[in-house]
User: What shape does this take?
Amino acid sequence: MKILAIDTSADETSVAVTEGRRVLSNVIYSQALLHKKWGGIYPALAKRAHEERIDSVIQAVSKKLVHPMGVLASIDTVAVTNGPGLAVALEVGIGKAKELAQKYKKKLIAVNHLEGHIYSSFVQNSQGNPKKEFEFPYLALVISGGHTEIVLFKNHVTYQVLGETIDDAAGEALDKAAKLLGLGYPGGPVIERLSKEAGNFDFYHFPRPMLKSKDLNFSFSGLKTAFYYFIKDLKSEEKNKKIKELVSSFQEAVFATVIFKTEKAIKQTGINKLVVGGGVIANLYLRKKFRALAKKYKGDVYFPPYQYLTGDNAAMIGVAAYYKAQKKLFVSDPAKLDRVPRLSLVDNELKSL
Ligand code: KG4
Ligand code: ZN
Assistant: This one.
């Protein structure tokens, strides 16, 4: 079963063709450069860029899959992210998916962007590697620019959200810290590099929010505010001199919080198999921390096997859609499919019951 998947939830226009867990073709057009000077995603620009690019991204995917009748002739189903994400951006992908499904008489599957990130650790290349099988249940983490979630991944397409951020996401916190220091957008990669140069050391010990709370929720806005006031009091030359120490300490506060809450979730659920997805898990230092945590509990941790699968991509949407198709979770009335900017995994779970 071949699926053409589309994701336009934020600032990447991505289209993929997948078959089961295998990715036959995946193209990502990133708008990051466009949004750089705003220090975050600028909605009107994102919408226009998606509209301008979507057809050529579909064409680029098709080129890699030679089929005499064109790519749409060879696929069985169209899948699209219907939320969560930026409304004006989601709309573009949904509109295109509906158009294609109708024109070529294909079934349509709506995928929650978060379930895409959860499945990203199980995506295979076109050769079917890596081969690792599913061994439910897992504790799944999504750590991205828009989300910080701990999810009980019970079985295919069956989730229970155990904790999530009540304000900023982990990646968003990194992006905001980088913006305050004039380091550009996105902040995660540059903070990773500078922190490594500083030895990934915690020089300033910024506050770790919510560690005392009993639940598994996160909050990063207090840390961001503490950081803001801390650097506001520094002279600009001192700030520049200490930039590596500053970002390294900030990164440590974010990551220590994520690991602390994950450990709490392991203790509460007794589950020691982790899957971690989302843009922030591109960070090798965070991967190391997760590996150490899994080892401490004699468990395992899985990450997206290829770098492009950490950030937003349509391949993970296609793979999640495959498991939805197995459960016959097709959109019953494609004309009515609409974006749900605040779609949660709970909504999704109800639909799958
Ligand atoms: O998953 P993603 O591409 O988009 C969302 O769904 O949000 O995640 C983007 C986030 C940004 O906040 C970016 O700064 C962060 O992932 N990120 C990183 C790294 N690469 C990207 N954070 C830490 N270290 C990295 N190497
Ligand atoms: Zn994402």
Notes: The chain has two domains: 2-130+308-352, 138-304.
